[in-house]
Design goal:
By secondary structure, the chain is of the alpha+beta class. It has one domain (about 5-165). Helix content is about 30%, strand content about 25%. It contains 4 helices and 9 strands. The chain has helices spanning about 5-20, 75-80, 110-125, 155-165; strands at about 25-30, 40-45, 45-55, 60, 90-95, 105-110, 130, 135, 145. The strands form 3 sheets. The protein has a 5-stranded mixed sheet with strand order 1-2-3-5-6. Strand 2 and strand 3 (about 45-55) form a beta hairpin. The chain is globular. The termini are far apart.
């Protein structure tokens, strides 16, 4: 079921808020998708994370296209990562092939982790689109599959790891 990207953005924020709440976090929501710097603040035991939610129904997230002009994919990924807020975690919400009554697949990653993944795509040639699981049929990446790391999947352990990374 395809719906507008606006609806996917709102649904993604709601799914992310629900998952963090289910894990005992207090949630503060900035109303509307694509707020500057972050969409949600999540807090537990005086630990706060800024969450930037990116919803998709295509199997990918276009994140750095606006940074590409005049730069290589590698340079664009680095520029994008350096422009992200401190204590910001990206929550990637994927609705492709998900029944309307089911929860989407959700991943958590720091900007530097996303930049590194983008730089490795297409056999290390980079790309501006982050793929959940994509096999290249032609071009520079022909015959390879780019896939999000398993440890990015939303879990209590992943949240704890990110909190620890951002404290240091």
């Amino acid at each position: 079921m395809k719906v507008s990207s606006w609806h996917i953005g709102i649904a993604g924020e709601a799914a992310a808020a629900a998952l963090f709440a289910r894990h005992g976090y207090n949630i503060s929501v900035q109303y509307g998708a694509n707020q500057p710097d972050y969409d949600l603040l999540v807090e537990k035991d005086n630990n706060i994370l800024k969450i930037s939610v990116k919803g998709s129904q295509t199997g990918s997230w276009g994140l750095i296209q606006s940074y590409k002009k005049g730069r290589t994919y590698i340079e664009a990924a680095d520029a994008w990562a350096s422009n992200q807020g401190t204590k910001t975690v990206f929550c990637l919400v994927q609705y492709k092939d998900v029944d309307a009554m089911s929860m989407p697949r959700v991943y958590l990653a720091l900007p530097d982790e996303i930049a590194e993944a983008l730089k490795k795509e297409r056999k290390g040639n980079g790309d501006s689109i982050l793929y959940e699981n994509h096999t290249w049929q032609s071009g520079l990446g022909a015959g390879t599959t780019d896939k999000l790391p398993e440890h990015w999947k939303f879990s209590a352990e992943r949240i704890d790891k990110l909190l620890g990374d951002l404290k240091g």
